[in-house]
Amino acid sequence: MTGRIPGARRPALAEPAATLAGYTIGVTADRRRDELAGLLESRGARVVLAPALRIVPIADDAELRAATRACLDDPPDIVLVNTGIGMRGWLEAAEGWGLAEPLRAVLSDAYLVARGPKARAAVRTAGLQEQWTPDGEGSAEVVEHLTSRGVAGLTVALQLHGESQPEYTEALEAAGARVIEVPVYRWAPPTDPAPLHRLVDLITGKLVDAVTFTSAAAVHALLRAAGPATDPLLDALRTDVLAACVGPVTAAPLRRHDVPVSTPNRARLSALVRTLVEELPQRAVTIEVNGHAITLRGHAAVVDGELRQLAPGPMAVLRALANSPGRVLSRAALLQALPRHADEHAVEMAVARLRAALALPGVIQTVVKRGYRIPV
Questions:
Q1: Does the structure show a pLDDT above 60 at 310?
Q2: Dist CA 21 CA 308 (whole Å)
Q3: DNA-binding region at which residues (predicted)?
Q4: How far is Cα 184 from Cα 206, in angstroms, rounded to an integer?
């Protein structure tokens, strides 16, 4: 979870160590969590599922029906499609009310803006054609495009994505547009919040190597769940825990907190996983001892290309020693690296288990009356 030691050599790793074996990754998605978890697990990762939010469809909501009727009674000149699931849900709800074809006709006559590739795909699947899509998938970019194009006296239908967007609605209205907000679904807290709070603890304790986000709302939900632990959580995300977001819109709230974020070139789950496959191994500590290459991953060590799973205690000792190769660390110093409530006897046990797991004589040296070290 820490950075590479300067001058260390990275060995060629044998499968499955070349992928995500040895890493623990948090998944905050709800709707496609099983798909994302499956992609990660197929590459060897240990996955912590912690849905930050859940999507609540509102097909029977009077608000959505009223917005749909407003679009039919006074057809919008411009329609902004924010999400693929929102577009599909809107048409499905209209189908249930017997309004699908009239709505489709209204949409086909409007200047259709699809905010991203998923929204564009949903538009085309519906037999419609978008007129413009932003490069960066940001709502601010869309509003800038529309206001530059001119919206004075026009009606804009704004399909919301889980929550109201007053800043964009107000910007369009300030430019002279009449805005119809179309709420197709809402974000709601997870049914069971315990996994999310557990993930907060794992992040602050740096016991996960990465966390994935597929919506900006999930980022906000995680920060809310952190409460008083928000600062330690952000510190962990700025240093040891990799934040991986499906796209720039999702990443924006973290970047506002100065968290470095990794995003794929395309907003796809498979691309998000490839980003983790590429970046996590590059963050690993690698040391060379007595002709053996040892790479530290979240809960495992790769020894000469072979993955060795380690329990938390031995892994903590190895990480502390590897971060200061050649330096003698006392039992008291190593005790600070172990899980809480451990004692100095636990240090001795962790060292013994670490030696047995590595099976490399002389790699973990005892310095009499002083402590332990990794020789250089």
A1: yes
A2: 10
A3: 284-376
A4: 37
